[in-house]
Amino acid sequence: MPDTSRLSFKEMCVKFDVTPRTLRYYEYIELLSPEKEGRARFYGSREVARMTLILRGRRFGFSLEEIRQWLLIYRQKGTQEQLETFLGMADRQLGELEKQRAELDSTIEDLKALRATTVDEISKLS
């Protein structure tokens, strides 16, 4: 009977919709540490949880190095330090995302105004 608490390399790729290259790279930069049996890799609940955090962090705009350092804090300093570090990272990233949103809103308004001007010019030519 297969061990359902572990995912194979291929199952991990499918579960998280990542390429084999991505999974190997995350292992190479020490974000993931799968169990190895010969050439086969297996991912337990710890690695599944870490992958979830990695992908969530990427979605929020954190660099892989930031994520790696943040994950290391838990092992080195514990939960409270890790959570406090996350708050700082989150605050910084929220500020950056809000800045980007403001820039996008401004760009959208500029483009709408230019489009409206263009529509007016076309109507004058008709």
Keywords:
single chain, mainly alpha, 2 domains, Multidrug-efflux Transporter Regulator, Chain: A, Domain 2, 126 residues, three-stranded antiparallel sheet
Structure explained in plain terms:
- The protein folds into two domains: 1-77, Multidrug-efflux Transporter Regulator, Chain: A, Domain 2 (Orthogonal Bundle), CATH 1.10.1660.10; 81-126.
- The chain is elongated, with a radius of gyration of 22 Å.
- The protein contains five helices and three strands, in the order E-H-H-E-E-H-H-H.
- Helix 3 crosses helix 4 (64-77).
- The mean pLDDT is 93.
- It has helices spanning 9-16, 20-28, 45-60, 64-77, 79-125, and strands at residues 7-8, 35-37, 40-43.
- The N and C termini lie far apart (76 Å).
- Strands 1-3-2 form a three-stranded antiparallel beta sheet.
- With 126 residues, it is mainly alpha-helical.
Can you summarize this structure?
The protein contains 5 helices and 3 strands; from the N terminus they run βααββααα. It has 126 residues and is mainly alpha-helical.
SSE map:
Blueprint: E1 7-8, H1 9-16, H2 20-28, E2 35-37, E3 40-43, H3 45-60, H4 64-77, H5 79-125
So how many helices? 5
Uncertain regions spanning at least 5 consecutive residues: none
Q: Classify the secondary structure makeup into a structural class.
A: mainly alpha
Largest sheet: 3 strands, antiparallel
- By DSSP, the count of extended strands is 3
In the residues, how many domains can be counted? 2
Order of helices and strands: EHHEEHHH
How much helix is in the residues?
over 70%
Identify the CATH class of the largest domain.
Mainly Alpha
Shape from CA axes? elongated
Instruction: Please report the distance between the alpha carbons of the first and last residues.
Output: 76 Å
By CATH, the topology of the largest domain is Multidrug-efflux Transporter Regulator, Chain: A, Domain 2
Strand-residue proportion: 5-15%
Widest sheet: strand order?
A: 1-3-2
Query: What is the CATH architecture term of the largest domain?
Result: Orthogonal Bundle
What is the rounded Rg? 22 Å
Mean pLDDT: 93
